[in-house]
Amino acid sequence: MTLLFLILVKPLFVLIHGACADPAPLVKVCSLQSSFEPGFVAAGDYIIGGIFPLHYNQEMPDLNSTYRPPAVKCNGFDPRAFRWAQTMRLAVEEINQSKKLLSNHTLGYKIFDSCAYPLTGQRAALAMMNGLAEAESPMCHGASPLLAIIGESGSAQSIVVSRILQPFRIPMISYFSSCACLSDRRKYPTFFRVIPNDDYQVKAIAQLLLRFHWTWVGLVRGDHEYGRFAVQGLLRELKGTGVCVAYQEMIPLLYNRQRALEIMQVEANVVVVFSAEGEMTPFLKDYMMLNITGIQWVASEAWVTASVFAGREFYPYLGGTIGFGIRQGHIRGLRSYLETVDPQTYPSNTLVQELWGALYGFAYNVYKNAHVVCLCPKLQHYLQEVAFNIGGEEVNFDLKGDSIPYYDIINWQRGPGGNIEFVNIGLFDGTKAAGMELVIEEEKIVLVSICSASCHPGSRKAVRRGEPVCCFDCVPCDTGKISNQTDAIDCTVCPEDFWSNTDRTLCIPKKVEFLTYDSLGIALTAIAVVGACITIAVLAVFLHNRNTAIVRLNNSELSFFILLSLTLCFLCALVFIGEPTPWSCMLRHTAFSITFSLCISCILGKTLVVLAVFTSTRPGNNLMKWLGPMQQRAIISTCTLLQVIICAAWLIDAPPFPSRNTLYEHSKIVLECSVGSSLAFWCVLGYIGLLACMCFILAFLARKLPGNFNEAKYITFSMLIFCAVWLAFIPAYISSPGKYADAVETFAILASSFGLLFCLFAPKCFIILLQPEKNTKQHLMGKK
To answer: Which range is the signal sequence, renumbered to this chain (predicted)?
Structure first.
């Protein structure tokens, strides 16, 4: 270590000694002991230096003191720091092209890679004060016209570099170092920065913890002044707030995996980290190897916009991270400038992919720094407030060399490709009154739940009353609503013709339902066909035996009309099965009502004839002359015609039509025939009921006719069954959902048709087919 110190400090000693002694003999004895060439260099009348961590990790050399140790080997290319360096180059080129800033002079630069390591930063500072290129300039030949140095990133590096520059009164303007310790003007009189002091950041983090009621937290810091002062400041802010610190741990500067694994075993769901991305990278890789999830990370500004953690492999472990980043700004021309980078020198393909997802906060700071250097004479007055206007923006330095505290609140969220996106969700304004500094758009935020596990797709978050926003219940989406993302705030209603699946994650087309040829439809069809066939068979029996007594006495013409109308009644039930169409909807109710009206009208005519025949034997009763065949046909035609007129008016005014009913069951679309006019529908049924009641009353009056002629009794019983079926139909129809309403109506048609068929014709067919000896007028009239 002693040898390394001498190697690093010797150039400074030789430079100072050479400035005070006779230069002639020094040329013979002084020589460059080691070389540290800049990454980028440009000549100019004046030079500004830049120190950036172009690599975020380092490999220490073997220090066995038996030979000169090699330089520190840098590992892990950092696209973010590379952008900062390119931003400085762009700013210098803009300054040289401006006629207002440096007229008649040019500005050059020397940019070094510090590898995020203080000793490498020290070497860069010493090399910076030498000539433009070390290999071409012997030591002590004379210092370059160095105006200022833009750097460093980490506070530990800035402390070292600032102390090196202090004797030479060379200003150093940092774009990143935020340690509160650097505000001490006695120790660091030439240090300035355009990033807020960490005192403001820890105040902001403390307010964030209180805002979300995170009262049990862990603290992790890097092994440097930045981490130490930040943790001390946060502990001060949390005093008396009720927030308890579960542990304080440090990531070793020389990374020790065993020590890191010990840190990860400590229980705490919220972890605040003050560290740079170089130290965080190996730590997080080991953390991911252990497959630890469910941690809510709170990031300091040093790594909250680190693009090295933006890959999709990091999201399961770092998604939801929240922290405070430097205010972003737009740098015109930076994107096109970055695209000119030599792809052979730096991995620009990877670089360009990662650059656009990152914010321009620190790059914008570098850009401002380069312009501030042009106003360098003002920076010589170290103990006064300084203000510049750069591109319309006010840049201020207070008496401590600090800038005004503004932070963007950054939240790590999943991007379209699964990678991490840095989303701005709010602002911390240190100039506002106490308690008013923090502004968060909570509807944009995505956090790792501390109280509750994440809500899976198919559910939504329901915040518990009186508890923090990270404490919630997962409520399944209601039927007809879905959520297809994790931690959904609300469920989305499916479109009208769609419904949610079982998991409530997808809207699927609703099932279309109607009385089709499924098991129920096939059963009803079979019953209707069988009924029609039986009716036709009975008609055939009657036609074959039309000259027998039982057929003649039962008014064969009316019996044939009744059988034909019953056949049509059975067949019209088939119209109710199948997908509703405009024609089928109109035919359903009209065909049913007209055929039943015809059937009941025939039964009414037959009842009147029976009543007239058996009352005409009374003296003075000549009712039969008014009920001849012509009058019977007139009664049937008139009664049927009235129903036809009602149906015609119905079809003209408000015909039935197919409709898509979603009220019975929201998960289905029920195709049904809307009646069009409820009044017409119930008028049709009421008219059939009126005819049936008239038949029942007349048949009841004729129930005690003489002999074995029981036709009036059969009509009475058939009308009882008919009326019972249709009275039961009304409540069943109204309460039946969907296709079952059509099934109920079809069943009522079939049941009433079978009731009429069997009550009126079964006894007659029994005599005709099985007891032909009783098929005589004498037997039927009760005569021996």
So the answer is: 1-21
Indicate the helix (H) or strand (E) that contains 107: strand 107-113
- At residue 50, the pLDDT reads 92
CA angle 305, 333, 395 (to 5 degrees): 65
Helices 79-97 and 361-373, packing angle to 10 deg: 30
With H, G, I as helix, E, B as strand and everything else as coil, classify residue 167.
helix
What does DSSP assign to residue 416?
A: T
Residue 133: how many other CB atoms lie within 10 Å:
15
d(CA 573, CA 89): 89
pLDDT for residue 708 is more than 80: no
**Which one, of 366, 372, 359, lies nearest residue 327 by Cα?**
359
Q: Is 131 exposed, middle or buried (0-12, 13-18, 19+ CB in 10 A)?
A: middle
Only one residue has tokens 């069951």, namely 665
Task: Give per-residue pLDDT as tens, 73-122.
Answer: 888 888 888 888 888 998 898 888 887 777 788 888 999 988 888 888 88
Summarised one tens digit per residue, pLDDT across range 299-357 is 998 888 888 888 888 888 898 999 998 877 777 777 778 777 655 555 544 444 444 44
The tens digit of pLDDT for each residue in 151-174 reads 888 888 889 999 988 888 888 888
C-alpha distances out from residue 103 to 87, 95, 110, 365, 390, Å: 22, 10, 21, 24, 17
Give whole-number Cα distances, 298 to 237, 324, 645, in Å.
16, 9, 82
pLDDT at 26: 42
Burial group, residue 169, by CB count within 10 angstroms (0-12, 13-18, 19+): exposed
Buried b (16+ CB within 10 A) or exposed e, 559-592: bbbbbbbbbbbbbbbbbbbbebeeebbbbbbbbb
715, 602 Cβ separation under 8 angstroms: no
Give the pairing of strands 107-113 and 46-52. Answer: parallel
pTM metric for this prediction: 0.50
Say if residue 433 is exposed, middle or buried (CB neighbours under 10 Å; 0-12, 13-18, 19+): exposed
If you average pLDDT over every residue of the chain, what do you get?
Answer: 79
Total Cβ atoms within 10 A of residue 461: 22
d(CA 489, CA 38): 52
Percent pLDDT > 70 in the chain is 80
Q: What does the pLDDT average to over 277-287? A: 83
Cα 559 from Cα 581, distance rounded (Å): 35
Burial code (b: 16+ CB inside 10 Å, e: under 16) for 88-118 equals: bbbbbbbbeeeeeeeeeeebbbbbbbbbbbb
Degrees (nearest 5) of the Cα angle 125, 279, 269? 145
Long-range contacts of 465-469 (CB under 8 A, 24+ apart): 467/213, 468/212, 468/213, 468/214, 469/212, 469/442, 469/445
**pLDDT of 442 above 50:** yes
Whole-angstrom distance, CA of residue 534 vs CA of residue 540: 10
